[in-house]
Structures are given as C-alpha cells and as structure tokens.
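Problem statement: downstream parser choked on a complex file, so we are re-checking the raw output for the flavin-adenine dinucleotide run. The parser issue turned out to be on our end (a line-ending mismatch), but while we're here, posting the original submission so the record is complete.
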Amino acid sequence: MSDKVISTDAVIVGAGPVGLFAVFELGLVDIKCHLVDILDRAGGQCTELYPEKPIYDIPGLTVVSGQELTDRLMDQIKPFGAEFHFNQRVESLERRDGGFRLVTDAGTVLDCKVLVIAAGGGSFTPKRPPLPGIEQYEGTSVFYSVRKMENFKDRDVLIVGGGDSALDWTLSLQPVAKSLTLLHRRAEFRAAPASVQKMLDLVDKGAMSFKLGQVTTLHGEGGRLSAVTVKGADGVTFEQPVEVLLPFFGLTMKLGPVADWGLNLEENLIPVDTAKFETSEKGIFAIGDINTYPGKLKLILSGFHEAALMAQQAHHYVYPDKKLIFQYTTSSSSLQKKLGVK
Amino acid sequence: MARITFIQNDGTERVVEAEPGMTVMEAAVKNAIAGIAAECGGACACATCHVYVDDAWREPTGSPEQMEEDMLDFAFDVRPSSRLSCQIKVSEALDGLVVRIPEKQF
Ligand SMILES: Cc1cc2nc3c(=O)[nH]c(=O)nc-3n(C[C@H](O)[C@H](O)[C@H](O)COP(=O)(O)OP(=O)(O)OC[C@H]3O[C@@H](n4cnc5c(N)ncnc54)[C@H](O)[C@@H]3O)c2cc1C
Ligand code: FES
C-alpha cells in the first residue's frame, strides 16, 4: 500500500508462463519490467490449475509439469531482475504523455512506457456461490477476501469451506469476531493439518464452533445479512444467525478490469496484429491466451513466440533513437553479458 | 461405445455416445451439454464439471478418490451421489449410465 509512484520501462499484467517469458525477451533488449498478478505466486494457469499435470508440447522438454515449467522460467529470467507485485489486481489504466499509468487494488501506482497485457483467461477471482440474492450483500455482509479487519470486528462471522483460506481466516478472525462459526460439508479438510488442529482446539475451548453442512439460503434486508439456512450433513436444515459471511469455494477466471480499459475486444479477447502483437493502441501489447488473431492457438508455445516479436516493437518505444540489431544468444557476447554468462 | 444420458435440472434429457477411455466430462463437452463448464479441462482443479450419478449407477462408477473429494468442497450443493465428471472414465460397463446436472454450478 504505497502512494509512491513506480516508474519503469514496461509493466506486464499477469505472471503466467507468457508474462514470465516476456521478461526474458524484453530483458534481452534492455527493457526493465514490473509484473503484477492477483495470485500470490507466478505461473498463472500452470500453477493454479495444473501444477502436477504433465505438459508434453514445450519444445525441447519431453515432459514438464506446470510447476516445473514455472520454476524453470523463473530461473531463466532471474538475470533480468524483474519486480513482482503479487496479490494485486491491476484495476485502472490511464493514458499519459509518453506512456501509461496503472493502479492496482492495493494502491500501487506504476508508470510505464509500454504495457504488456498477458492476462491469460483473465484474473483469478473467488467463486461466488450461486445463492439467490447474494449480490445485494457483497461488500457489506458477504466478503470473498479479508481486506479490512474492521469489517469483522465484534460481528457474528460465518466462514464456509475446508481449504487453507477458510482455515487461515478462521484462525485470524476468531480473536476479532464476536462469534465465529466454521461451516464445512464434511469432517475432513484439505487445509494444512496444523491449522485444522488449532481450529479444533479453539472449538474444544469453546472459543468458536464448527458445524457440518452447506448454506442453501440467505436471509436479511437492505444488504445486511441476519441468518442463513444450512442443510446439515444429516440432511436436516437449521438456521444459523450471521452478520458476516465469508465463502471460500476456490477461484475462477474472469476477464475483470481489462474489459474496462477502452481496448477493442472480440468475445473477451484482445485482437492484435501478428507482426508486433500490438493492440489497436500504440504501446499496448497483448500476448498469450488473452489475445486473438487469425489462426490463434491457446498454447504456451504460441505465447512465447508472441513475446519475442512484441519485444522488438517495444524496443522502438523505450529506445526511439536506438537501432536494434538482431543477435543470437549463442554467439552474442553482449546478450550473454545480460544473461550473466561467464 | 457407451451411451450416457445427461438429465438437466428442468428434466430435459440427452443421450450421447462415448468412447471407452474418455471421461464423462469429455463426452459432455464434445456434445455441448449445458452446465458442464470444465474450466480446468479435466485436471480435477475447478469443480465445474459436477454431476449427480443416478443411484442405480453409483456402484459401477465407484466413489471419489481423495483429490476428487477435496475438489468437491469447491462444488455447490454436494450430495452423496456427487462426482466430478472428469474423474469418471467411460467403459463398456458404463453403457447406459445416467447422470444429472446440478441446478446451479458455479
Ligand atoms: C488443464 C490445462 C492443461 C493445459 N495443458 C497445456 C499444454 O499441455 N500445453 C500448452 O501449451 N498449454 C496448455 N494449457 C494452456 C496454457 O496453460 C495456457 O495457454 C497458458 O497458461 C497461457 O498463459 P498466459 O501467461 O497467457 O496466461 P495465464 O496462465 O492465464 O496467466 C494469466 C495471469 O494473469 C493474471 N491476471 C489477469 N488479469 C489480471 C489483472 N487485471 N491484474 C492482475 N493479474 C491479472 C491472472 O491471475 C493469471 O495469473 C493448459 C491449460 C489447462 C487449464
Ligand atoms: S473439469 Fe475441472 S474438475 Fe473436472
């Protein structure tokens, strides 16, 4: 949460595999980058959706898991010292003289000469339970993340879920809330066993309660929740008084704020030209799953190629007076110097 | 070949043919069955392929393994017959399988 403005050559929105490789290609042409991702780590879909699944079509790697590919990319881009801003979503884009200003939901302000949108299938967003009328309570009684502790202070809090988010927030909010109940559909948890044990200890001490079941209906008025109906594990329903509800049902991909940045969109994708992978606006590029062009394939391989061509054009904007000479990493001593080869 | 019947919440039914070896989710997606989003493409990482297996078919389809059971925590209105359709492999033994699509998926 800083109000200091960060100035850099390029900002990459999205730290998926394509955003990561863009750091490499931009780095080779001396462009410094900052990356922003709403997730708490790099890798995008590869680490969020299939960290342990094998990928068979990365050239030169017979088989590599989503996690390992991410780790290798992180290693490969290390020489370029890109800076990462995790747990933040880029909200707004402002066109300014000679570049762009981006602001994240955590208040980070980034000024850049080129903007690279590598937002993939969109930002990972908490899933909204399909409970009728839930929208009217969002932001007042229903929260999908904890940004301000005050929202939970001296309130009757209900947390739903059995994963790490649900358990971590149960433990953090228990001392703050007036009462805290954890609701989960079964007695087993996917969360870390140590957190589960801490939660059970609190239940034993009478400091909070744990109930089995699933929420079926919300009750309240004017955006204020008063109770929820729960179908218990035995099928019997009961009412649970509650002022604040925190449902943790995992993440889904939503295009999100990118849709409001005034760029041309075709069915939630950003059209680009295939020579520079630039959008309809100069200095704004779109690479990876987020873009579209005739023949587009949503493959990591394609995203890597797009990153390489994008970097050539980006160089014109960052160094308008310099001519770019095509070089191979194998034989160019200047490229090898950038890569830290000794 | 195995024939699979998908029943929507409003009662509409569709019968599709599935090749042994593919998953029930793949059969649904290939035939554009509404309500099976399968966002993660079968990686057991999204729970948007949730179905209820007809009681008569619960035994032959088996029960969820640990990873699937964990992922079912992210589904809505989970019942004893709940399965993630990407984790049910089609075989000749499942010819005639009947599954229901939940009223609401995430
Ligand atoms: C199950 C599965 C298997 C796959 N197997 C293969 C395979 O074998 N081979 C292959 O080539 N491809 C495969 N893919 C596809 C591949 O994962 C994608 O093509 C690739 O992840 C796209 O990379 P990306 O960097 O463009 O986007 P993503 O990986 O989607 O990353 C985009 C990132 O941007 C972030 N973001 C978006 N908007 C914002 C914002 N406003 N603020 C902050 N952050 C934001 C998101 O949170 C996300 O982390 C598979 C996909 C799935 C789901
Ligand atoms: S398709 Fe994602 S869990 Fe089945």
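For whoever reads this later: The pocket of FE2/S2 (inorganic) cluster (ligand 2) is lined by residues B 25, 38-40, 42-49, 71, 84, 86 (CB under 6 Å).
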